Amino acid sequence: MSKKSFAVIGLGQFGLAIVNELATIGADVIAIDRDEESVRKAALHVPTAFIADATSEQALRELDVHHVTHAIVAYGDNIQASILTTVILSNMNIPHIVVRVDDDYYVPIIKKLGATEIIMPQRLAGTGLANRLDDEDFLDYYSLSDNFSVVKITAG
Fold it and tell me: Would you call 117 helix, strand, or coil by DSSP?
């Protein structure tokens, strides 16, 4: 199996958390954002952090994003940039494209444009917290779908 490589586009709290975790496990990561301060924070974790406009196919190609196996579009508040970036990544034939979406309305649109996975961090956090508060034995809770969840519980 070939080694996975990642591009994380959008370096807010969510994107930076992804960069940090991927760096911790030794993954090859390209971190991209327009904001210099966000890129500076990412550069503390990975050697390939760039200030760039990810809605430009030329910019992404110059950063070798077309060679990654996984791309994570982690914009929080710019659905237009998420849509444009997803289309570009899909046209580059990136095998696995994960897109952060904060509104259900955009889920089918983003999927049709080439996202292979949708992540809704606010929903995941809210569901996990509500379930942990409901049952004191739950240490952690992850909903995988409407029918399946993973729960970490206290022993005893």
Answer: strand
